Amino acid sequence: MQEVYIPAERVKLLKSNHELFSKLKKICNCNLKINQNNSIEIEGEAFDEFNAKNIIYAFGRGFSIDIAEKLLNDEFYFTFIDLGDYAKNKNRRIEIKARLIGNNGKAKKYIEEVSSAFLSIYGDTICFIGKADNIAEAETAAKTLIEGGSHRLAYRRMEAAHRKYRKASASNEV
């Protein structure tokens, strides 16, 4: 048995949406039980429990079930950046999140389009789901913005990483 703690508002979403909770159970191939302390108990085969824990954790960090489900594919990974490591001041963390999202979500969308990684900006974390190279590209842009770099610089660095990884993968296929 495994247990995963997720934010109260994400637990509330699961409790209020029976269809979503049923879908999560089906995807995880495990028995799931929501506890009073904002945790979810997972019972099933060891490998299924491992996958379920990752999917539920990703859901808890703001991803939709459909995106979190991608973690069932061995090529997809989940990583995160804790903004508390970069900014001790609450106002600075809010500013960083705003820069990562951009006006009307434009910065976040552009990072997702170029890198092909999925981003979730939730609480004090920036989370990524994608293939290793895709996440590295997205993290390049995110870290540039976190460190105070301009959007232009962040995009240039991400696009350079994108070209580098595509060139490397093309030469490996030959």
In short:
By secondary structure, the protein is α+β, with helices and mostly antiparallel strands. It is built from eight helices and six strands; from the N terminus they run βααββααβααββαα. Helix 6 runs antiparallel to helix 7, helix 6 runs parallel beside helix 8 and helix 7 runs antiparallel to helix 8.
List key phrases describing it.
alpha+beta, single chain, globular, 174 residues, 3-stranded antiparallel β-sheet, 2 domains, 6 strands, Ribosomal Protein S8, Chain: A, domain 1, 8 helices
**Percent in strands:** 15-25%
Query: Spatial order of the strands in the main sheet?
Result: 1-3-2
The first-level CATH class name of the largest domain: Alpha Beta
Biggest sheet overview: 3 strands, antiparallel
Give me the CATH superfamily of the largest domain.
K Homology domain, type 1
Number of domains: 2
Which geometry do the CA atoms define? globular
Q: What structural class do you assign from the helix and strand content?
A: alpha+beta
Determine the mean pLDDT: 90
Describe the structure.
It is globular, with a radius of gyration of 17 Å. The relative contact order is 0.11. With 174 residues, it is an alpha+beta fold. The strands form two sheets. It has a three-stranded antiparallel sheet with strand order 1-3-2, with helices on one face. It has two domains: 2-72, 2-Layer Sandwich (Ribosomal Protein S8, Chain: A, domain 1), CATH 3.30.1370; 77-173, 2-Layer Sandwich (Ribosomal Protein S8, Chain: A, domain 1), CATH 3.30.1370. Helices cover 57% and strands 17% of the residues. The model has no long low-confidence stretch (mean pLDDT 90). It has helices at 8-16, 18-28, 46-60, 65-68, 90-101, 106-115, 132-146, 151-173; strands spanning 2-5, 31-34, 39-43, 77-82, 118-122, 125-130. The protein is built from eight helices and six strands, in the order βααββααβααββαα.
